[in-house]
Amino acid sequence: MQEERFEVFFQNISGLYRAVQRLRAQFADAAGVSAVHLFWLYLLREYPEGLAASRLAELSNIDRSLVSRQLKPLLGRGLVCADGKTGKRRYGWKIRLTDSGRALAEQIAREALSIQNRAGRGILPEELVAFYRVLGALNQNFNEISITGGTYEERTDHS
Questions:
Q1: List of residues 6+ apart from 45 with CB closer than 8 A
Q2: Count of CB atoms situated within 10 Å of the CB of 55
Q3: Dihedral sign, CA of 123, 128, 60, 81?
């Protein structure tokens, strides 16, 4: 028997999103970067060889034009460097962390791990594994439902 869970789901997802956004904004302020830069620095830490700006946009789930506009402050502060600076378009530039960018990215990673550990208190490791698997599946399913053409009824499985 299926029960209506939308209200509980919506309240919890919305509350979780707001809490994560507050934490991200607080840490971004403390680190002296914008919230989007915070995530980029974290991502670039995982790719020491660098990432194309277009790939950074894809992994961040944001528009390429935002990456292009937002690179300037990071370049100006010396947190990242860009290889292949040809032409006006930054999409093909390979973005890498500088030493100071790497140091800030390590600080970001330590804080993220601390938050992750505190948020997971009282939850068994196998429960967290299942949670992240289910969360990923829900994300994929909701994205497929929301971007598929047709009416709402055509996009949902009624079985």
A1: 97, 102, 105, 106, 108, 109
A2: 17
A3: positive
Distance CA 49, CA 111 (A): 23
| 3-class secondary structure, 80 | strand
pLDDT at 156: 53
**Cβ–Cβ under 8 Å, residues 151 and 158:** no
pTM beyond 0.85 = no
Chain center to CA of 7: 25
Distance CA 90, CA 40 (A): 15
For the packed helices 35-45 and 64-76, what is the interaxial angle rounded to 10 degrees? 80
89-143 residue pLDDT tens = 555 679 999 999 999 999 999 999 999 999 999 999 999 999 999 999 998 998 8
